[in-house]
Design a protein that fits this description.
This protein is mainly alpha-helical. The chain has one domain (about 1-550). It has helices at about 1-30, 35-45, 55-75, 95-105, 115-120, 120-150, 160-185, 215-225, 245-270, 270-300, 325-335, 350-360, 375-395, 405-430, 445-460, 475-505, 520-535, 535-550, and strands at about 195-200, 205-210, 400, 400-405. The strands form two sheets. It has a two-stranded antiparallel ribbon with strand order 1-2. It has a two-stranded antiparallel ribbon with strand order 3-4. α7 crosses α8 and α15 runs antiparallel to α18. It is globular, with a radius of gyration of 23 Å.
């Protein structure tokens, strides 16, 4: 266990060192000269590379999203007739293909299937892996547009979506994914064109091991906050995550770009004290959640004492190579972002440990969040904090010299209602749908937790699964897909509209609320907990809290 705690300390230290460096690099990437090679290449392909207003920007996002969903559905449903299918897998049903296509295009990567048992190499590589890059690039591009809107004045231009998306792929995602994939291959993660290999087990029984371009998909699923594993059990599978080093690097890749974007924001607004305050506040959230989760995971379970299994809670459901502490680290990091990959089963965590990773998503994966989506989700609460503080102090609510008026408040409320309405409404519709309960493998309070986790994961664009929930049913495939679309664009579009409105304003000087320091960090944290967290307190009482009280009553 001491080695695990040292690894966690090194993890936090590297995050503090690397995030500002990568954040500055990303700023330079997006503020390159407009006549660079990639811009000329896009122009020759027929794209208009001039700066876009909010209307053109939204149209580009919608067009790419619809095209991505349709193409991926065609690949998944028609994989039996496409090349790269040596194991002769049939095509997916329309509802599962729709769910999967929406999942990967929205950067959620919820998986209601087992990849190595249902998807061909063609579907994995040219279908899912491509969308891992594209969906992450869209998130980054939108974040950059929002940064520009807040930083600029007296303009209606937010940059060019196509240029920003291409730069995200070429200069950020591809190089980092290539380096990580090479390291993962050195650790034993497969990267081959072969679909399977027959091996003889120690028992003498012959077994088929599924292979493919695993390392390249694992690299981008982690870096792009995607999380969809090549294998059904994700990074808990030895071929996807074979060593301590691969476990550390895959887990670190989850949080690197989301944390770095906070510092990228600082270079746009030229207010580094403010972004340092945001980074410290988010890191404090991470540490509090991590420490509590570790405490719950290593605590002895009183219900096992009578069986003479006082230490069983330490390891049940955990990968024995990593242990409870590193499983807790991965669980907290993957739900603090919108990554969704796992190296252990969340359903096997302690009751309160499972509640911690669930509550992470219920808060909207705000501290750090996904690539791009985390920072603009955080900005919703940041603007609300400034507005509340302005009302309490009698000031006109201003953020970085830009007034927060009725228009901004309206769209902030829309964005804030996405999680509570999306999760609770869709989960309730599914709950009362005839036959939907056959998806539950457990009942009572634990079953409610599994149900809530699935819909929270979808609306939160996270994609991790609690297990114990058979999601591959038409009603769940469709409702979960609706939740993914709502979670992705229900926050993205309002923040783009707010940023476009702020870009048109001239900056004012003087009278701004101080947005750096411990006081502002504490105020922001309070708003996140009170506004974001308390919305879900009743349903948490019905699920994990009730289960805990019943278990220990």
């Amino acid at each position: 266990m001491n080695g695990s705690y040292m690894a966690i300390g090194l993890y936090i230290l590297l995050l503090i060192i690397c995030a500002p460096i990568v954040g500055r690099y990303m700023f330079k990437v997006f503020e390159r000269n407009t006549q660079t090679l990639e811009v000329r290449w896009l122009s020759r392909l027929g794209f208009d590379c001039s700066e876009q207003g909010i209307g053109e920007y939204l149209k580009a996002i919608i067009a790419l999203t619809i095209l991505g969903i349709l193409l991926l559905m065609m690949i998944l449903m028609g994989q039996a007739s496409l090349p790269g299918n040596p194991l002769h897998y049939p095509g997916l049903s329309w509802d599962l293909a729709f769910n999967t296509a929406v999942s990967f295009v929205t950067n959620t990567n919820w998986q209601a299937y087992a990849g190595e048992l249902q998807l061909s190499s063609f579907s994995q590589t040219l279908g899912l892996a491509v969308q891992n890059f594209v969906s992450a690039a869209v998130g980054i591009a939108v974040a950059i547009a929002i940064f520009r809107g807040i930083a600029r004045q007296s303009t209606d231009k937010l940059g060019n979506f196509w240029v920003d998306a291409v730069r995200s792929v070429l200069f950020i995602l591809l190089p980092l994914a290539f380096i990580l994939a090479i390291v993962l291959v050195s650790q034993g993660v497969p990267q081959t064109l072969s679909a399977s290999h027959q091996v003889t087990l120690l028992s003498g029984v012959k077994s088929l091991v599924h292979l493919g371009d695993v390392a390249s998909q694992v690299a981008i699923k982690q870096l792009g906050s995607n999380g969809g594993g090549f294998y059904g059990v994700n990074s808990a599978y030895p071929l996807e995550n074979p060593t301590q080093l691969s476990n550390f690097l895959e887990c670190f890749a989850i949080i690197l770009l989301p944390a770095a974007l906070i510092f990228t924001f600082g270079y746009y607004i030229r207010h580094h004290k403010h972004t340092r305050t945001l980074f410290i506040t988010m890191t404090a959230f991470l540490l509090v959640w991590l420490l509590l989760t570790i405490c719950f995971e290593v605590a002895r379970d009183p219900s096992l004492h009578g069986l003479g299994l006082m230490d069983a809670q330490h390891w049940f459901g955990k990968e024995s190579r990593f242990g409870p502490a590193l499983t807790a680290l991965w669980g907290v990091v993957t739900t603090a972002t919108s990554n969704g990959s796992v190296n252990g089963m969340h359903d096997s965590m302690s009751i309160l440990g499972g509640m911690m990773v669930l509550s992470n998503m219920l808060l909207g994966s705000l501290y750090y969040g996904g690539v791009g989506s985390g920072i603009y989700g955080l900005l919703v609460y940041l603007l609300l904090t400034v507005f509340i503080a302005g009302l309490m102090s009698g000031r006109t609510p201003d953020y970085l010299g830009k007034r927060i008026g009725a228009y901004e408040i309206k769209w902030m409320i829309v964005a804030m209602l996405v999680m509570p309405l999306g999760v609770l409404l869709l989960a309730s519709i599914a709950w009362f749908w005839p036959g939907s309960h056959s998806a539950l493998f457990n009942h009572g309070a634990h079953g409610i937790t599994e149900w809530l986790y699935a819909y929270t994961s979808a609306v939160g664009d996270n994609g991790s699964a609690f297990a114990g929930f058979g999601a591959d049913m038409p009603v769940h495939n469709i409702l979960l897909a609706v939740g993914m679309l709502l979670g992705r664009f229900g926050i993205m579009f309002p923040m783009l509209l707010i940023a476009a409105r702020m870009a048109k304003q001239p900056k004012t000087t003087g009278g701004d609320l101080p947005v750096s320091g411990p006081l502002f960090g504490g105020l922001l944290s309070s708003v996140i907990i009170l506004v974001g967290g308390l919305s879900f307190l009743p349903v948490l009482v019905l699920g994990p809290v009730a289960e805990y009280l019943k278990m220990h009553g």
